[in-house]
From TrEMBL:
Lineage top rank: taxon: Bacteria
Residue numbers carrying 4-aspartylphosphate: D54
Primary location: cytoplasm
Leader sequence segment: none
Gene: ntrC
Protein name: DNA-binding transcriptional regulator NtrC
UniProt xrefs under InterPro entries: AAA+_ATPase, AAA_lid_NorR, CheY-like_superfamily, Homeodomain-like_sf, HTH_Fis, P-loop_NTPase, Sig_transdc_resp-reg_receiver, Sigma_54_int
Bias kind Polar residues: ranges: 396-405
SUPFAM superfamilies for the chain: CheY-like, Homeodomain-like, P-loop containing nucleoside triphosphate hydrolases
Record organism: Microvirga terrestris
Pfam families: AAA_lid_14, HTH_8, Response_reg, Sigma54_activat
Chain's role: Member of the two-component regulatory system NtrB/NtrC, which controls expression of the nitrogen-regulated (ntr) genes in response to nitrogen limitation. Phosphorylated NtrC binds directly to DNA and stimulates the formation of open promoter-sigma54-RNA polymerase complexes.
Cell compartment(s), UniProt: Cytoplasm
Chain segments carrying region Disordered: 386-405
Gene3D superfamilies given in the database record: 1.10.8.60, 3.40.50.2300, Homeodomain-like, P-loop containing nucleotide triphosphate hydrolases
Amino acid sequence: MPSGQILLADDDAAIRTVLNQALSRAGYEVRSSSNAATLWRWVSQGEGDLVITDVMMPDENAFDLLPRIKKIRPELPIIVMSAQNTFMTAIKASERGAYEYLPKPFDLKELVAVVGRALSRPRSVPTGAHPAPENEDIPLVGRSQAMQEIYRALARLMPTDLTVMITGESGTGKELVAKALHDYGKRRQGPFVAVNMAAIPRELIESELFGHEKGAFTGATARSTGRFEQAEGGTLFLDEIGDMPMEAQTRLLRVLQQGEYTTVGGRVPIKTNVRIVAATNKDLRVLIQQGLFREDLYFRLNVVPLRLPPLRERVEDIPDLVRHFFVLVEKEGLGRKQLDVEAMDRLKRYRWPGNVRELENLVRRLAALYPQDTITGAIVDAELDSQPLLPPQPAGRSNQPNLQASEGLSDAVERHLNEYFSGFRDSLPPPGLYHRILREIEGPLIGAALAATRGNQIRAAELLGVNRNTLRKKVRDLDLMVVRSNRV
């Protein structure tokens, strides 16, 4: 049975009661308070084995209290809770010495598990924290559960030099996350150098990364420094790593293994001290199977995998993102804008194939082209290139289809289309309906076939009755993530 005294501080009596009950059932002694002053008195008197505190207390912000606690009791683990749920909340919690940050609401089982891990860890004095930059105007926006997981992972990675592999569809913000890792990490004083593998001619990638000596090849009239040398002491962001040719992959692997490299045409090894962050919108495991990516390099880069969710998986973040982008364009000199309820509903029902980048471009277009202070749903409809196959929903109604027990696929599609058309009342849906319907059906169908065959595209093509090359093209066009399992 676990043991230990928990000091709990939250000004919400209902939350204190729930947490007290959960922790008591788990075998812990709990002392709870509604203010920071009492918590500080307990800690300063040497009481408690662990602290759980909300950020916003009636008498003091917990972020101001944490450094004082860590100064007198550096070994005391502190768990921070917050309903603010922003990226900077997670970063500040980490920078001020918190053991863990939990965004409200959270699962009680998760809290108990975190408490158990914190109390069972070796008690050692943590290294000094690096203060976070005061500027909070960073482009990581959203309070969804998916983004909370990203924030917590980033907060844990800030004090480390671990290699990170960021995966996600185009437009999800992979470079923004890499920049945040640098700007709020231990290498913030060094340079951040980004290089896009897909934007460099294949024959020049090695020279671009490692530099070249004078006369190394035709046109090399002088020595040139590479991106590794430019990023010395900082972070090197390798975007679209899946497009790196095999020859450059071999040299990159050698750098990661030995910590040194030679310039193109050079002979003297050069020591390197950079943090590597890589990113891709491709499934590298598929490229490995196709012989296009080195498996040993994949494992060297994939030390900490970080998947960014597409916008359609975090639609609850759209209002915050829209407001954020409108603020940015207002600072650039354009007029202040806002969306009406219908316009926001249209954005939430759109599929966003271009993800956050597409949303930002739309917001900029709306701010620049329309004089109205309030943007309507009709304007948003006119600007979106394609519409989702989701009818407008009455208040309180879910977008999930209400399938009947005996209903066949044809009947379900017919009923769904009737609802879709009726949602436009006396008007018609935008043109291009035929291709939108096919795309809506193709994605789930191919995804289900790939899931059933555990990512085996040969078996999936056979199951669907299509040519394997046709399936691969569909997977690429529909931007489907393929996860391969060996248990086929």
